[in-house]
Design goal:
The protein is of the alpha+beta class and 105 residues long. It contains three helices and six strands. β3 and β4 (33-36) form a beta hairpin. The longest helix has 14 residues, at 57-70.
Length: 105
């Protein structure tokens, strides 16, 4: 069975659920009724390289990582930057001084 996206009319929750083509509504965990969202079909196969969508949270990290690499940052430079901005308080706790770390960027 294919998976479909549903949005609850009561609470607005969006969730995914297995269902048949004729399953246009599904029960929500709040007790309301969820409507199936429109199904979008691909118009063909793209030969262009895929781009990372900045709007999706799971891809934001990768997008930021690529931007940092383009500016010359790598793992070793990042670790060095963090170590340089570690401060120790009176009780001996070590913390990252965010203000000075961001100023160095």
């Amino acid at each position: 069975m294919p998976r479909y996206d549903y949005t609850c009319t009561e609470c607005g929750l969006t969730f995914e659920r297995l269902g048949g083509f004729e399953d246009v509504v599904a029960p929500c965990r709040c007790g309301g009724v969820a409507d199936r969202q429109a199904v979008y079909r691909s118009q063909g196969v793209s030969t262009r390289p895929a781009e990372v969508p900045d709007s999706e949270p799971q891809y934001q990290v990768e997008s930021q990582r690529k931007a940092l690499r383009a500016r010359g940052w790598d793992g070793d430079r990042a670790v060095e930057h963090i170590r340089k901005n570690i401060r120790e308080d009176a009780q001996g706790h070590k913390q990252l001084d965010v203000v000075s770390a961001n100023a160095d960027l």
